[in-house]
Amino acid sequence: VKQLIVGVNKMDSDTAGYKQERYNEIASEMKHMLVRVGWKPDFVEKSVPVLPISGWMGDNLIKKSEKMTWWTGADVIATDGQKIHIDTLLEGLNNFVQVPERKTDAALRLPISGIYKIKGVGDVL
To answer: Contacts for 6-10 with beta carbons within 8 Å, 24 or more apart?
Structure first.
């Protein structure tokens, strides 16, 4: 894993109330937790956008929320070194996340979680 986007969800809840203070508290704790589990502090600070969102109400998912006027977006550095501004989760997925290069001529390998023998059909993986 070389790319991360953190979403602070439920900004519409009574506890959060779309407030910047609550977002800052959670964003700070999430960044601290990422560093504690092994991510480099410089990477977390410069390359991990932390977005305030509400999945239920659709805030900052596809278009910028009018309920969080304090949110000015996040400036992050992508894996290719390009500086990108992100306001919404959609912008993050479209503009920030980059598909890793893969060998298209290599063998396709898939994990199998179970094999089922169905009479008259055969083995189903």
So the answer is: 6/30, 6/34, 6/48, 6/49, 6/50, 6/51, 7/50, 7/51, 7/53, 7/89, 8/50, 8/51, 8/52, 8/53, 9/53, 9/54, 9/55, 10/54, 10/55, 10/56
